[in-house]
C-alpha cells in the first residue's frame, strides 16, 4: 500500500500543483478586482465567496454571479479562469488515466490485493514457489486432496493461467520474484496458517535463497526444496532444510531398488502413485550383461553410480565430454542416435540402455535405433518436457524418468502423508518376499487402480469419538477399526500399514493390535473403505456397534421403548 500511495503522489504531483496554482490565482483575482453592489458602490468579494464561486465555476459552470452582478472586469477574469481551470482538469484527468493504465501501478494494486487476501486466509496452506511443470503437477495434486496452496512465479503468463485451470480449490497467485523477501512475506511466509514452503524454481540459487529466508523468518515451518546440484544440497542441509529433492538421485535410487527387490519397487510405485491411475506392472532390470548409458550429465552420472554399485558394467556414450567430464568406465564419443556409435558400445550384447540426454527427440531416436539393433534390451528413457508424454509413451519403455513428475509426486507424499516415506524406509529392511505378499494384498483390495493412502491421528481433533472411547478405557483393535459399520461381519478393503506410537513404529500391525490414544495410523485401501471408517471413528454409537455387535437405541424415547420390550444394556 505504501508503494501505491508513493506512486500516486509522484505521478499526480504536477497536475495537483497546477490545479492548486490555477485555483489560487483565480480566487486572488476575484478578491482584488473591485465590483459594484446593488447601490452602485465599490465592493470587493470576500475570500470565502471567491473560493465558493471558483469551486463551482471550475467544475459545473453555473449557478450565476454572487452576491451581486459582476462588472466587465470581473467577467473577463472569470472567463480567463474558466478556460485555465478546464485545461488544468483535462491535464489532471489525463494523468489519472495514464496512471491507471500504467503496468507498474496495476502490478502494485494486484500485489496489494493479493497480500490482503492472504492475510484473511484461515485454512492451512502451502506456499509453492515456481509454477512450471513441477509446480503445476504439485498444485493439482494438493487441490485434488482438498489442500490449499498459494503460488509465486516470476512469469506472469504462468500465474495468469491458474485462473483458467480446472482446480478444485481457489489458488491465489502472485506474479513476483520468490527470491525477494517482501514477496515471500506477502505470500504468507509468516502467516500462522502457512503449513510449508516448497521451492520449485529452475534456478538452484533462487531455491537456496527461498529455503534460507523461510528458515530464518519462520524456523518452525516445513521447507521442501528442489535441487539438482550436490553442492547446493549440502548448503541447504547445513541450515536445516527439511527435505531436499533431487530428481536424478531419486530415480537412480528407485532403479537400485528395482534391481535388489522388484516387488518392493512395485509396491513403492503403487503406494506413491496418484489415486485413480491404473496399477503399473512389475519391472525386472537385467544383470546378465552390460548397460549402455547415453548422456553423461547429472542424470547419467547418478545412474552410472547406481549401476556400478549393483556390479553392472557400464558403457557411456557422450557427445560433449569436455563439458560433462569423461567417465572412468568404458566410453564412446557420440550422441548415440546413430547405429555406428551404438555398435561401438556393443549394443548387441548389452542388457539395458538408458537414453538420458536433455533432448527428448534424441532420446527417442536412441531408443528406436537401439531397438532395431537389439530388441531384447531393457529401456530406460528420460522425458524432459511434459508435452512429449504421448510420444514417450509410444516407444513403450520399461522405465520413464520425468524429473517434474518425480519431484511433484515425492513432495505431494511428503506434504500429504509423510508417514508413507517412513513406511518405505522400514520396508527396505524387509525381504522381497514380504513386499510381494503385501503387493498381492494391496492388489486384491483395489483391483486395478492405485489405492488411497491416508494418515490418521487418533486425537480429539481428527477422530473425536474414537479418542474419547480410548481415553475412557475402551478397547479397540485394528480388526475392529477395519470392520464394515454397515455389516460388521465383513472387513473393509483396507490395510493398516504402520502405527506410529511415541517412539515406536509398528510395521504391518497384527489385527489383534490394540489402538491407543495419540496413535498415528498409515492406512491403505479403497475410497469407500475410508468413507465408512471415518463414519465409525466419528460416531460413538457406530463405534460401539462395530465393537460389540449390539445396536443400542439412541435418545430417551427409544431407550424407554426398548426397556418396555425387555431390552437390557
What does this structure look like?
The chain is an alpha/beta fold and 569 residues long. It has 4 domains: 2-101, Orthogonal Bundle (Helix Hairpins); 123-245, 3-Layer(aba) Sandwich (Rossmann fold), CATH 3.40.50; 286-397, Rossmann fold; 451-556, Alpha-Beta Plaits (2-Layer Sandwich). Helix content is 50%, strand content 15%. The strands form 5 sheets. It has a 6-stranded parallel sheet with strand order 5-4-3-6-7-8, sandwiched between helices. Strands 11-10-9-12-13-14 form a 6-stranded parallel sheet, with helices on both faces. Helix 1 (2-32) crosses helix 2 (47-57), helix 5 (133-144) runs parallel beside helix 17 (403-416) and helix 10 packs parallel to helix 12. The longest helix is centred in the N-terminal third of the chain and has 31 residues, at 2-32. The two termini are 66 Å apart. The mean pLDDT is 90.
Topology (elements, then pairings):
Elements: H1 2-32, E1 35-36, E2 42-43, H2 47-57, H3 72-101, H4 103-119, E3 125-129, H5 133-144, E4 148-153, H6 156-161, E5 173-175, H7 181-186, E6 194-199, H8 204-217, E7 222-226, H9 230-238, E8 243-245, H10 247-260, H11 262-272, E9 291-294, H12 298-309, E10 314-318, H13 321-324, E11 330-333, H14 339-344, E12 352-355, H15 360-373, E13 378-382, H16 389-394, E14 399-401, H17 403-416, H18 419-427, H19 432-446, E15 452-457, H20 464-471, H21 478-481, E16 483-484, E17 487-491, E18 494-501, E19 504-507, E20 520-525, H22 527-538, H23 540-548, H24 556-564
